[in-house]
Amino acid sequence: MASKEKMSELQKRREQIQLGGGEIAIQKQVAMGKMTARERIIQILDDGTFNEYDLFVEHDARDFGMEGKVLHGDGVVTGTGTIGGKPVCIFAQDFTVAGGSLGSMHARKITKIMDHSLKMRMPLIGINDSGGARIQEGVNSLAGYGEIFFRNTLASGVIPQISVILGPCAGGAVYSPALTDFVFVVDNISKMFITGPEVIKTVLGEDISMEELGGARVHSEMTGNAHFFAESEAECFDQIKTLLNYIPWSNSCIPVKKPVKMPLEDFDINEIVPSDKSLPYDVRDVIRAVSDNSEFLEVQELWAANIVIGFGRIDGITVGYVANQPKVLAGVLDVDSSDKSARFIRYCDAFNIPIVTLVDLPGYLPGVDQEHAGVIRHGAKLLYAYSEATVPKITVILRKAYGGGYIAMNSRHLRADFVFAWPDAEVAVMGPEGAANIIFRKEIAAAEDPDKIRKEKVAEYIEKFANPYVAAAKGFIDSVIEPQETRRSLIHALEVSSNKEIGIPRKKHGIPPF
Amino acid sequence: MTATKKTSPGKGKKPSQAVVVDDFVVEFRKYKTELNRKFLERKPWVPKDERMVVSFIPGTVTSVFVTEGQHVEEGKELMILEAMKMKNRIYADRSGVVKKINVSIGERVPKSKVMFEMDLD
Question: Does residue B92 belong to any structural domain of this protein?
């Protein structure tokens, strides 16, 4: 056994280092409304499970007066622990130590825990709170970032990677979160940007605050860089735990099946969708009406809200939902909603999560801005993601499915395993108004009362084509079901496809329209 | 489109702007739906006016090589707009007479400022 002196020396060293940047720096951190790095880790992990690694690491900088400086833990806390009894890797940058700046040893601590998480196949949670590169360490600091980005990419699709932005995350540093699966932000605390307000002001003369440039709300609503928005750090940690409850620990396992719970009676599936195709409703109510305990964890709730994505359970099995949202922009597909859903589909596919698609869309968003923003390229991502996905793919057409939108929303033609439609569904090459205008153009133009004839022709088209039976007659729809049969049909489809196995042509990788 | 309801700028987890309309048209049909902030803030497209020489980047005017009333050929160097440590040479896209110069040397210009107005041949 070690001598008393050695033991107390260890004790002393630990206590000193665990204080990070010291009392004053901690007070400053608290004054900003932020927790310290260790507090954050302890709050996320199960009680008493944190095992810290590399506590005694020191920086190795020798220039600009750094040789005399002591930076405890080199500004980052790393280790392992459990969440819900299962092991995870975690790191948290410590803003109280040199502003959480990233030097070569700081980066090495992070890459070590990343390597560990990939090797041991467990999720990686990274808490970002850093002023950026440690300028005194020059290119060594850049090398550190590069090593992190490389590992993010290598681990992508193998283990879940979660980034939590709890302070500034600026310059090159933002690319690590951008490469991970889910980015969590907290109002008034998270700040992400490539070039900050000062540079923008000096170079471009544009005056903008940090919050307006890259605050939590901006990234949750405008850019789509963030996936979960919380109002406090505590709420953010709850969100992380909820998410981990739905997803598997790596791509070589499936999500844990939970006890089955019936949906709540508050969500009456017969009463949600109006028959009048012009009227909106909240598609999340349909999701809740078919999900266990009516629970739904929405991802990117505020961005591109015209499509809804997220996780729920059906009969205890985790599914990923993709649903058009008629409540926002009539549920159209556009640049952002295509990007949002395509990436989510690839996430589900990578982690063995069946995809349930709910369809009700009028088509693509018209507009010069959309065309010039490359809606062709972005829209193609959705087709690519669905076509490529080999997990069970189940579609329910709730109401409208027109044209290119019908194809894109996991149609039979992209190898959906099951396609159900409600009796109100309209599956057609385009909406009745548009179709009648084209097919009967001459009759309408020649008529004495064009409006009357147009109305008649629209009615005729609706009668003949605006239903699910034309598509069902071709076998493009497997079954027309009553809304109340939806959950049962989904459960059956999930059961039947639980051993699904299909091949894809041998390739290194495809070329998705990034 | 006519707004029927406007909610106050977002606090908490609500979207920061939500305007509900009942005449959002997609393929000849009108829909009642919410418009989000990004849609409301989109910039309407305007065709390019070839008579205007517009700054493509914010920067500082370091040289002007022509004067008002001068006739210039297509490809003539009009000025230098320094931005991001780069001296960007601005050329005439079309031949014509320089009608008006709206910048002076040393001036910092924002993006999309009309710097020269031309009477095209």
Answer: yes
